[in-house]
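Work Package 4 report. The design task specified in the project plan requires that, given a folded chain encoded as structure tokens, an amino acid be chosen for each position. We show below one input record used in the internal validation round.
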């Protein structure tokens, strides 16, 4: 791709992602991850957020804990239903802008670790994910719907299959 075309594409992505970021509240200093209990605001480059239709939000210190939460709401958020979720966001690795988690591409098994170790690394495009996978010794690229309930525990154990 020509340099000017690549620059325009990056600007377009950044502009669209910035609009999405506005849809996600920032975690406060006292907001803790409902899965691991860590203070989320200490890790701004890893923040993931679930916003419910009534406006309240739960924040996470990475996509891995977000997926643990989503796959077992009765354990992590008693009384909450998946149908009550309005938006799910993750922080895109390169831009550090929160984007729709369902639109992200996730790399697992890379040499980049999050606050809780092995992490799903959110990227804005398939091209970015393939480049990240190559540059950071990643093992696989997944889409949102491909993250199984078992995967976060496998990542905790260092298993990337």
């Amino acid at each position: 791709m020509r340099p000017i075309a690549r620059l325009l594409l990056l600007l377009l992505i950044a502009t669209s992602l910035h609009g999405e970021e506005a849809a996600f509240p920032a975690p406060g200093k006292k907001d803790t991850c409902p899965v691991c209990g860590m203070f989320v605001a200490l890790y701004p480059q890893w923040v993931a957020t679930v916003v419910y239709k009534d406006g309240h939000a739960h924040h996470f210190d990475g996509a891995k804990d977000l997926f643990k939460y989503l796959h077992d709401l009765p354990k992590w958020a008693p009384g909450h239903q998946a149908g009550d979720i309005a938006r799910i966001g993750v922080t895109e690795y390169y831009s550090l802008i929160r984007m729709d988690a369902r639109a992200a591409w996730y790399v697992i098994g890379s040499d980049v670790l999050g606050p809780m170790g092995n992490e799903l690394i959110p990227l804005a495009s398939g091209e970015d994910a393939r480049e990240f996978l190559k540059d950071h010794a990643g093992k696989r690229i997944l889409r949102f719907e491909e993250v199984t309930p078992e995967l976060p525990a496998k990542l905790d154990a260092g298993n990337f299959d």
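The chain has a mean pLDDT of 90. Validation will be extended to a larger panel in the next phase.
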